[in-house]
Structures are given as structure tokens and as C-alpha cells.
Task: inverse folding
């Protein structure tokens, strides 16, 4: 508790409220309730706005990569870099969606 700077630690096996959830390599699960530590609604708004911004950027990039003239005329390394960016942004979008879900945002 001292190392983690916790005021309370419970081993009750139940998951309640908004929080962070992780499954460790040994299969054990950790849940940290965040409702008392952060303003959950404000964090939901912030993450939603970030997700919206990322989805707009992703839509623009997808349009660019769907443009056959861009793909045909741009150097192969530029197209490859844009495709890698698209994959990274898809991954980021999933992480944000998972965070919103774990916080109980609607």
C-alpha cells in the first residue's frame, strides 16, 4: 500500500463502478476504482472528444489512401508510411474505445 500510495486495498473479487481493469500475465486481474480519484464525467468528455478527433483524422487518411491517383503517383515509402499511420490510428482508436468502456461512458 505504501509503494502504491494507496489509502485502501481490497481483495474481494468484485468489480464496481468506473475504473481501470487489467489482466496480468499470470491470469490474475486487477481493478482500480477511479470514481473517487478523478471526475469520471469530465474524463469521458475528454476521451470522447479525442476519439472524435482521431476518427476524423482516420477518415481523411482513409480517403487519401483510397485515392488511386495518390497511391499510384506517390513514392512507395510515402504510401507505406501512410498505411502504417492508418494502422497505428486504428490501434489508438481501439484503446480509446476500451478506456471509454472501462469508465462506463455512454
Result:
Amino acid at each position: 500500500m505504501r509503494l502504491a500510495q494507496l489509502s485502501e486495498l481490497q481483495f474481494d473479487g468484485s468489480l464496481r463502478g468506473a475504473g481501470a481493469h487489467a489482466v496480468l500475465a499470470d491470469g490474475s486481474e486487477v481493478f482500480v476504482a477511479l470514481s473517487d480519484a478523478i471526475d469520471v464525467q469530465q474524463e469521458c468528455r475528454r476521451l470522447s472528444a479525442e476519439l472524435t478527433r482521431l476518427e476524423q483524422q482516420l477518415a481523411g487518411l482513409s480517403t487519401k489512401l483510397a485515392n488511386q491517383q495518390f497511391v499510384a503517383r506517390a513514392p512507395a515509402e510515402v504510401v507505406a508510411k501512410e498505411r502504417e499511420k492508418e494502422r497505428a490510428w486504428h490501434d489508438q482508436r481501439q484503446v480509446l474505445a476500451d478506456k471509454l468502456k472501462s469508465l462506463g461512458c455512454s
Observations:
- The CA atoms of residues 18 and 103 lie 4 Å apart.
- The two ends are 32 Å apart (CA to CA).
- The helical segments are 40-66, 68-73, 76-103.
